[in-house]
Design goal:
The chain is of the alpha+beta class. It has one domain (2-26, 58-134): Alpha-D-Glucose-1,6-Bisphosphate, Chain A, domain 4 (2-Layer Sandwich). It has 3 helices and 7 strands. A 7-stranded antiparallel beta sheet has the order 1-7-6-5-4-3-2. A hairpin with a 2-residue loop joins strand 3 (41-47) and strand 4. The longest helix has 24 residues, at 111-134. It is globular, with a radius of gyration of 15 Å. The two termini are 24 Å apart.
Length: 137
Amino acid sequence: MTTIEIDRPPAEVYAYATDPARFPEWQADVRRVEVHADGRFTTVRRIAGADRGMLQQVTVAEAPWRWAARAVGGAVRPEATVTVEPLDDGRRSRVTFTLDFTAGGAADLLLPVVRRLAARAAPRSYARLKALLEGSA
């Protein structure tokens, strides 16, 4: 779990941070995103030197406060949650990100490595999100 504060109102933060089409702008490992008509989306990430696609679906969408998505299928499946809280009478936001992974079978052995890689990359993505929203990128 990581929490950051952003000098933008919650509705703006939520709209930007939870729009899969904008993920490549602030998540360095995201190469591209394809949003499907059924509400799911495919995220192509650069992982360990290779592009890997992952079908995901939104599981919670409570604008402008809470959003969650999880992978549909695959050996290692991420689950992410974004929670936005108002600060200073709604002029600023506190954003909490949770990210975890599940796996099945032999892929369980990969979980410690995947978690370590994500923990290393995530802070850079969150800093980029903050900089973009605050206009300092």
